[in-house]
Amino acid sequence: MRIGIGYDIHPLVPGRPLILGGLEIPCEKGLDGHSDADVLTHAVIDAVLGAAGEGDIGHLFGASDPRYQGVRSLRLLEESWRRVKGKGFRIGNVDATVVAEAPSLAPHLKAMVANLAQVLDSETARVNIKPTTAKGLGPLGAGEGIACLAVVLLVEAGDEGN
Ligand code: MG
Question: What is the pTM of this model?
Answer without folding.
Answer: 0.95
